[in-house]
Specification:
This protein has 576 residues and is of the alpha/beta class. The chain has 17 helices and 29 strands. The strands form five sheets. Strands 1, 2, 3, 4, 5, 14, 15, 16 and 17 form a nine-stranded mixed beta sheet that branches. A hairpin with a 5-residue loop joins strand 20 and strand 21 (440-447). Helix 11 (258-267) runs parallel beside helix 12 (293-303) and helix 12 (293-303) runs antiparallel to helix 13. Residues 406-567 form the Adenine deaminase C-terminal domain.
């Protein structure tokens, strides 16, 4: 992170506080605080000037002119929490997620850039990121090396120029996640070149290796991977540590593995907590109703992890791994004044949140919202075409069967097709993927989604194209036109009545409003789907991953029905 944060005159002013020439803006007096290097709870005074910690120790400032002095006797101070692996586009947007997450103490994010890569040229994406940088929280970014699906224009999006521009940014700190890692094993030197370029700029490389063998892990380490977040058993944690990986433990809406992983680590008495981080891995909105990284810390405390290790996994370990401990993750001189004030270390949901010297929460109350940013560069999703009778032609022999929320397999279709409405006595549904500009479509059947969903349409998907699912062609059409009217979103229709909907007016993919509102709408949608036979755990992830070729075994993509294992199109897209 070779970026200059403070100008010369800022640093001179900060040093003048030590000499009593200048006064700090805030002093947190008698604070019991976590020193993450000593791994001890210490007591002292924390001086802050604007967005920086000026001093931590036993002394009080010589000059307290107009300084806000807060006595924290009986309270506990820890570094602001850091989310090391976040997908900030799960219906919510980065701004709304940060505003929401700050209220439970998470104020620094290492964030996926996939939506930017697929939706915007770099110049527009960087303009949005620069707006985010001006606000009192911290976003750092990944740079993706592949689209995670099958696109006809992937080479035009993931170019040398585009990737290297992301790598050159000081706030890009990691390459990946490497969902396209099989390409490396198959000889893709372009991806290997990007990895090397990122490494030369001191960026980390994040893997995505669910169920990987020791042989694969060894190969991927040689390719340059630094860390991985896909451990599902304690043995997989051990395997990654053995090969020198940093390991991020996951607690998400579809992979809530953290409690069992921590239980196994403690039972085996593995002294590895300095090399562990935790993540909610882009969970859908409702999962965050009771927190973000504070939720992970609470799970660790409940599992019996030492509190200092629990807090370090959500702060100092992240900062140290990403070479940003000079700014984050430590209550010490020179760092950002990003601190959480707790009742005690056993209650990680903070009473007060200070982010870059700005109070966002005090006495358990939200005291400041983040200033809005301009999302206009994403544009609106203007669906300019109508559906035709030919769009609902189904004559293929092979369909897609859901094994769980996100894993699918091929199945031989054995129901009568091209009916206006399918029976609710089985779980077969029509499935269509349509280009957002109306140029092509892919038709098939989906088994295992639901028994009674008549019509569902969504512009929220891996690529931003439109997905239609349902039993009734009439209700699928109605759902499509509801999404068209909203300029993007999700609509559930039954008997031509809208049962639930979520408007996604930022580019057709993101909700433009508070997460509290979004959680209500998402909860209503999920409840309605469950009542109609959706029996998996997270329908939003199902919609997102129907196109994602980093998961087995069969996907509906812009190129057609795609066999992930054989790397071939089974049924091509049809031009409209």
């Amino acid at each position: 992170m070779p970026e200059s944060i403070w100008k010369i005159q800022d640093i001179r002013k900060q040093v003048a506080v030590i000499d009593g020439i200048e006064a700090p803006t805030i002093v947190l007096k008698n604070a019991r605080y976590l020193h993450s290097i000593f791994k001890k709870w210490l007591t002292g005074n924390i001086w802050i000037l604007e967005n920086r910690i000026i001093y931590v120790g036993q002394k009080m400032p010589l000059n307290l002119t107009e300084t806000e002095v807060i006595d924290l006797e009986g309270k506990t101070v820890v570094p602001g929490y850091m989310e090391p692996h976040v997908h900030p586009f799960q219906l919510y947007n980065p701004h709304s997620f940060a505003d929401f997450a700050a209220q439970t103490g998470t104020t620094t994010f290492i964030a996926d850039n996939m939506t930017f890569m697929l939706s915007l040229p770099n110049k527009k994406a960087f303009a949005i990121i620069d707006q985010l940088k001006s606000l009192p929280f911290s976003f750092y970014w990944w740079v993706r090396f592949d689209s995670q699906t099958e696109l006809d224009n992937e080479d035009a999006l993931f170019t040398n120029k585009a990737i290297l521009e992301w790598i050159d940014r000081p706030d890009t700190v990691v390459g990946g996640e490497l969902t396209g890692w099989p390409r490396l094993l198959n000889g893709d030197d372009q991806m290997l070149y990007w990895i090397q370029c990122a490494k030369l700029k001191s960026k980390k490389i994040e893997g995505h290796f669910p169920g990987a063998s020791e042989r694969t892990l060894a190969k991927m380490k040689l390719f340059g991977t630094n860390g991985d977040h896909e451990s599902m058993t304690v043995e997989e944690v051990e395997r990654r540590i053995l090969h020198g990986y940093a390991v991020t433990l996951r607690y998400s809406s579809i992979r809530p593995d953290l409690p069992e992983l921590l239980k196994g680590i403690l039972e085996k008495d593995l002294n590895i907590f300095d090399h562990l981080m935790m993540t909610t891995d882009g969970s859908t909105p409702g999962f965050h109703k009771d927190g973000v990284m504070d939720k992970c810390i609470q799970v660790a405390l409940d599992a019996g992890v030492d509190p200092i290790d629990a807090y370090n996994m959500a702060s100092y370990n992240v900062a140290r791994y990403y070479n940003m401990e000079q700014l984050h993750g430590l209550v010490a001189t020179g760092r950002f004044a990003t601190l959480n004030i707790l009742k005690d270390e056993y209650n990680p949901n903070p009473e007060g949140v200070l982010s870059k010297g700005v109070w966002l929460k005090r006495a358990n109350e939200k005291v400041q919202s983040l200033q809005p940013i301009d999302w206009a560069k994403f544009g609106k999703l203007n669906i300019s075409f109508d559906l035709e009778e030919d769009d609902f032609q189904f004559s293929m022999p092979i369909g897609i069967e859901m094994v769980n929320d996100v894993i699918t397999k091929p199945y031989r279709i054995n129901v009568q097709l091209n009916q206006e409405e399918l029976s609710t006595s089985h779980d077969h549904s029509y499935l269509i993927l349509i280009d957002r500009k109306g140029k092509w479509r892919v038709n098939t059947m989906l088994k295992g989604f639901a028994t009674h969903v008549k019509g569902l349409a969504t512009s929220y998907s891996n690529t931003g194209h439109i997905i239609l699912i349902g039993k009734s062609i009439k209700d699928m059409k109605k759902a499509f036109y509801e999404v068209k009217k909203m300029n993007g979103g999700i609509a559930l229709v039954e008997n031509e009545e809208v049962i639930a909907s979520i408007p996604l007016t930022i580019g057709g993919s993101l909700y433009n409003g508070p997460i509290e509102e979004l959680i209500e709408k998402e909860t209503a949608l999920k409840s309605a789907l469950k009542e109609r036979g959706y029996h998996h755990s997270d329908a939003i992830y199902t919609l997102l991953f129907l196109q994602s070729t980093h998961l087995p075994y069969i996907r509906i993509t812009p190129r057609g029905i795609f066999d992930v294992m054989k790397k071939q199109v089974m049924l091509p897209a049809v031009m409209r």
